[in-house]
Amino acid sequence: MHTTHTTFQLAGLRVQRLDFQPHSVSPADLLVLPHAALLNHAVPTRQAEHLAGRLAAAIALGDAGAQAVIPGIGAHREPLWPAGFIGSISHFQRTALAVAARQRASLSLVGIDGEALLDAASAQGIVDEALNPDEHATLRASGLPFALAVTLIFSAKESLFKALFPQAGDWFGFDAASVVALNAERFSLRLNYPVGPFPAGACFEAHALCSEAHLVTLVRG
After folding, report:
1. Domain tally for the chain?
2. Are 48 and 1 spatial neighbours (Cβ–Cβ below 8 Å)?
3. Which of 46, 100, 133, 160 is the most exposed place for a label (fewest CB within 10 A)?
4. Residues 141 and 100 in one domain
5. 64-78, pLDDT tens digit by residue?
6. Taking the complete model, does pTM exceed 0.70, yes or no?
7. How close are the terminal C-alpha atoms of the chain, in Å?
8. For the chain, how long is the longest CA-to-CA vector?
């Protein structure tokens, strides 16, 4: 599979970015995955994005000081990180993102999400699913364009899910958290009810990097 590797910094962590060509993936490329058989019946686009995400994750692990191994896949299809390390993977359009770090007291969770920037019509179509009534007020107070604010909130909740899931061990929805402060670079989320070991009211910081076409959010804690 044809890929281009670059990196960027977000929230004090180095993010690995792989831009890939979906239709360049071959069956032989997939054999580097420890769970390659699970992708036998996936469409080529899905195979490519999954492979790119796992390759980016291996690079991220090596950069963090671990063995540069490709994470396996868990019971909920989540990536399995080596003991002592945390990480997160995202992919959108033809881009895969991954971040990994050594787990420590000051950094015990991380989640990353990348999204193509929604247009106004698409943002309107998901706003009631992604936002609760209080967040509509937060959105208006931010002064950000409507579509950008909705994309940021949607993406931040995806990042929060990925950050908390390894310890929560179960699914939770967009209603689990509220964005309580919002700008284009940094904002806060608060849990509305307990999620695994995390109590209601627990707060997490999200960081964002925006361009004209897409954005990336990262939650760390």
Report:
1. 2
2. yes
3. 133
4. no
5. 999 999 999 988 889
6. yes
7. 34
8. 51
